[in-house]
Amino acid sequence: MQRGTGCQIGANVSLSPDTVLGDNVIIGNNVTIYPKVSIGDGCRILDGAVIGRLPISAGNIVLPLPTEYLPVQIGPGCVIGCNSVLYTNVTLGERVLIGDLAAAREGVVLEDLVVIGQSTKIHRDLRIGKRTHISYLSVIGAMVEADVFISPGISATDDNNVYLTRFGLQDIQRRPPIIRRFAVIGLNATLVPGVEIGKGAFVTAGAVVTKDVPPWTMVAGVPARYFRDIPVEWKEKILSLRR
Questions:
Q1: Residue pLDDT tens, the chain, 243 long
Q2: Which of 109, 164, 180, 191 is the most buried (most CB within 10 A)?
Q3: Contacting residues for 234 by C-beta, under 8 A, at least 6 apart
Q4: What is the CATH number assigned to the segment(s) 1-126?
């Protein structure tokens, strides 16, 4: 194990022999770190977290699963919450916050300053852009650009053929929704596979999005329909940000 200066490691911690810890890393009690994990300077891993694990099947999963450990990179200043799980082949940028009981599946990339709320799940092979905030109790199967806000209770799915794919009767063709920069997704909204939420768009609470949402518009309802344009003064304030 490679260990920087000033690290603190709690009780009952299991570290792989090839674990790399930067300076001033704090690891709580009962943490498990699997092979090929690198943790940057100043990170804090709270009690019960599991980092770098392989997914495991009981022989009843249609999706293919990786069988070898791949690198996990955790950037400096990240906080990994209690009992959260990061699978193998996950990358975190700088100062990412992972809430308690959250999970990021294999292949996920979380860019700098992303927030993942408590008990939120990020599907595999997805990228979440800088400064995006995803609230608690959400299931995210979407590609998300920078500066997006996602409210609690969101469902975004990426398999529109589950009727057949669940039995292996059709090849899985994942079509994750895309949420463009500055968009807002309201409380308990649902995004079906393949839809695109345009730049600066606003999906209101409870909406079920079955079609693309144009940039800088609001949609509402089941199914979601055009409601109004984003006010010009809101758009101008957002676009004036230096990010």
A1: 899 999 999 999 999 999 999 999 999 999 999 999 999 999 999 999 999 999 998 888 777 888 999 999 999 999 999 999 999 999 999 999 999 999 999 999 999 999 999 999 999 999 999 999 999 999 999 999 999 999 999 999 887 778 887 787 887 778 899 999 999 999 999 999 999 999 999 999 999 999 999 999 999 999 999 999 999 999 999 999 877
A2: 191
A3: none
A4: 2.160.10.10
**φ, ψ at 85 (rounded to 5°):** -135, 125
Residues of the chain with CATH 2.160.10.10: 1-126, 129-243
As a whole number of angstroms, the distance between CA 27 and CA 25 comes to 7
Structure tokens at 43: 């990170």
Nearest to 130 by CA among 19, 242, 14, 243: 243
Do 1 and 39 meet the contact criterion of CB atoms below 8 Å apart?
Answer: no
158: region left, alpha or beta (phi > 0 left; psi from -120 to 50 alpha): alpha
Residue 155: what residue type?
S
